[in-house]
Design goal:
two-stranded antiparallel sheet, globular, alpha/beta, 335 residues, single chain, 14 helices, 8-stranded parallel beta barrel
C-alpha cells in the first residue's frame, strides 16, 4: 500500500512540509480544496521536492470547466516533471449552487463528460488531434497554436475521480486512472458496492483493475497515551457525525443498518449541534469506519482490513516520533 501525506497547511509552511514528507518516506503528498486553493501549495511542493507524487484530493471539478482544469493540470505536471495527479470530485449540490454559484445536474454524467473533455483537450495538445468535443454539458471546438502549451515532454497527468455512489464509481472506472474513496466509506461498502460498480466501468473501457489505483483517507484512531487516544476518538466521531448528516452518504449507513441516524444527524447539523452529534456515533459505527489501534498495530490493522481493496492510503495519523511514523509507512509499503 502506498502512503500519501497531507499538505493541508498554510502556504508558508508548504516547502518545509513537502521536504519532511519526502524525507519521511512517503510516496506522495496531497492537498484539498477546503479553506484554501488546492493547486497553489502543489506548485511550492513541486519546487521543494524531487521524488514524491503530488495530488489534489480533491479539487472541485464543477467549480471550473474542462479547459481551465486541463491547463492547471498540465502546468503542474510539466513543472513537477510528471509527478502531478489531478484528483477531482463533484462536491454536493448545495456547495456547487450556493457556494460556487455554478450549475448542477446529473453529477455522474457531467463528471464523465468533464474528464473526457479534458482528455480531448490533451489529445489536441500532446497528439495534434483536432479539438472537436461536443457533449451535453461541455463543448470545446476551438484551439489555435497560440494557446497550446510549449512544454509537452511529460505528457498528460493521471486523473483520479472521487466517488461514493455506484454511478460515480462506475464513471471513475471508465474514464479515470484511479478513484478517491471518501473518508466516510467502510471496507464492507468498498467490497460490496464500490468494487462491483468499478468493475462495470473498467469493463466498459477495456481496462484492468491492476492498472487502476484506489486511494482512500481511511480514518485512524490512535495515540501514545490514553488521553491522546480518547481525544483522537472524539475528533473522529465528530468527523463521522458531520459526514453522516449528509443525505448523499446515507447509503453507506444503510448498508450497515444504521440509516435511521442520518435524518437525526441532519436535523442536529441544521441546529448547529456539532458536538452533540458525535454522541450518536457509537463504538460499533466508529470501528466500522475507522481503524482503532495502538500505533504499533496500525499498519497490521490497515493491511488486514483494506489489503486488496485500497492501493494508496491518504495518511490520517501522524505519530510524534518520526521513526515510529516511518516504521508504519514502511510496513504498509511492504504489505
Amino acid at each position: 500500500m502506498r502512503v500519501l501525506g497531507s499538505l493541508i497547511t498554510d502556504m508558508a509552511s508548504v516547502p518545509e512540509a513537502a521536504r519532511l514528507l519526502e524525507e519521511g518516506g512517503y510516496d506522495g503528498a496531497f492537498t484539498a480544496e477546503i479553506s484554501n486553493d488546492p493547486f497553489f501549495p502543489l506548485v511550492l511542493a513541486a519546487e521543494h521536492s524531487q521524488r514524491v507524487q503530488l495530488m489534489s484530493s480533491i479539487a472541485v471539478a464543477f467549480a471550473r470547466n474542462p479547459m481551465t482544469m486541463a491547463n492547471l493540470a498540465h502546468d503542474l505536471n510539466a513543472y513537477s516533471e510528471g509527478r502531478f495527479v489531478l484528483g477531482i470530485g463533484s462536491q454536493i449540490k448545495p456547495h456547487i449552487t450556493k457556494r460556487m454559484s455554478m450549475p448542477w445536474s446529473k453529477p455522474a454524467a457531467r463528471m464523465r463528460e468533464f474528464v473526457l473533455a479534458m482528455r480531448a483537450i490533451w489529445d489536441n495538445w500532446y497528439g495534434g488531434v483536432p479539438l472537436d468535443f461536443r457533449g451535453e454539458f461541455y463543448q470545446h471546438t476551438l484551439m489555435t497554436p497560440m494557446f497550446v502549451p510549449k512544454e509537452l515532454s511529460f505528457g498528460p497527468p493521471q486523473v483520479k475521480v472521487a466517488a461514493v455512489g455506484p454511478l460515480m464509481t462506475q464513471v471513475a472506472g471508465e474514464v479515470a486512472d484511479g478513484m478517491i474513496a471518501h473518508g466516510f466509506t467502510t471496507a464492507k461498502y468498498l467490497r460490496e458496492v464500490s468494487l462491483p460498480a468499478l468493475d462495470k466501468g473498467l469493463l466498459k473501457a477495456g481496462k484492468s483493475r491492476s492498472d487502476f489505483d484506489i486511494c482512500s483517507p481511511i480514518m485512524v484512531v490512535s495515540g501514545t497515551t490514553e488521553e491522546a487516544m480518547a481525544a483522537n476518538k472524539q475528533t473522529v466521531k465528530t468527523q463521522l457525525a458531520f459526514y453522516g448528516s449528509t443525505p448523499a452518504y446515507k447509503p453507506v449507513l444503510d448498508l450497515h443498518g444504521w440509516g435511521d441516524i442520518q435524518p437525526e444527524l441532519n436535523t442536529m447539523s441544521r441546529a448547529g449541534q456539532w458536538m452533540e452529534m458525535a454522541e450518536l456515533i457509537e463504538d460499533d459505527i466508529l470501528n466500522a469506519f475507522a481503524v482503532v489501534a495502538e500505533p504499533d498495530k496500525i499498519a497490521t490493522e490497515l493491511n488486514d482490513r483494506y489489503g486488496g481493496l485500497v492501493d494508496s492510503w491518504q495518511c490520517t495519523y501522524n505519530h510524534p516520533d518520526p521513526d515510529v511514523q516511518l516504521s508504519i509507512i514502511r510496513q504498509l509499503q511492504q504489505g
